[in-house]
Design a protein that fits this description.
The chain has one domain: Alpha/Beta hydrolase fold, catalytic domain (Rossmann fold, 3-Layer(aba) Sandwich), CATH 3.40.50.1820. 34% of the residues lie in helices and 12% in strands. The chain starts with 16 loop residues before the first helix and ends in an 18-residue tail after the last helix.
């Protein structure tokens, strides 16, 4: 699920740069050991914006998820991957019974955003500490509140990157592939992530992980 605007009722452009920004993530997933067993689906937004209480991106995402479950069957594990506004949409619908987990990249998490729907679900957030569009502090607050609400949460920080995930792009792609594959059961989570997912209650332990995974 790609990003968008806070407000905007026009449909996304044909070029749709926010969607193109996620293409390298798709390629990285397809090149991974998950291989041919992985299916990738996109959400076609009706408009560019979230648009307040209309929450258009979340509505479109939920409709797409319902259609996908009907196609693949309710027993097929699904990971929701979203960036920015798409991350907010993924988090909003992440409590669906067929969702194995959510990977939210630089998600838009405004203060007070709902978390109750994520109880008993796995949530992985990846954010840069230099994001100037969606503040990393807000995703940290969201993660902490979601954990209190009963979600299994880990949050990884990519230092010195940006909202567009251009700086240190390879790290974004590899970390996203690692987390997505672990949610699907393809391999274990890194130990710090697994420990964070096992935590419960108040506190931010495991919600500011700076993993020494790769150098670009």
């Amino acid at each position: 699920m790609h990003g968008g605007e806070e407000h905007g009722v026009n449909p996304p452009s044909r070029v749709n740069p926010p969607l193109q920004r996620l293409r390298p993530f798709e390629r990285a997933l397809r090149r991974s050991p998950l291989g041919d067993g992985l299916g990738v689906a996109e959400v076609a937004y009706r408009c560019q914006g979230w648009n307040g209480e209309r929450a258009d991106a979340a509505v479109d995402a939920e409709e797409a998820l319902t259609e996908l479950v009907a196609q693949v069957g309710p027993g097929t594990p699904i990971v929701l991957l979203g960036h920015s506004m798409g991350g907010r949409a993924a988090l909003r619908i992440g409590g669906h019974a067929s969702v194995a987990g959510v990977v939210a990249l630089a998600p838009w998490c405004p203060p007070g955003e709902a978390v109750a729907q994520l109880a008993d679900h796995r949530l992985l957030i990846v954010h840069s500490d230099h994001d100037r569009v969606t503040p990393a502090a807000e995703s940290l607050d969201f993660a902490a509140r979601a954990r209190v609400a009963g979600a299994q949460v880990a949050r990884c920080v990519i230092p010195r990157s940006d909202h567009a995930m251009v700086r240190r792009a390879v790290t974004w792609h590899r970390l996203t592939t690692l987390l997505t594959g672990a949610l699907l059961g393809g391999w274990p989570f890194p130990d710090p992530v697994a420990k964070s997912l096992a935590r419960s209650g108040a506190g931010i332990e495991g919600l500011d992980l700076r993993l020494p995974l790769w150098a670009d």
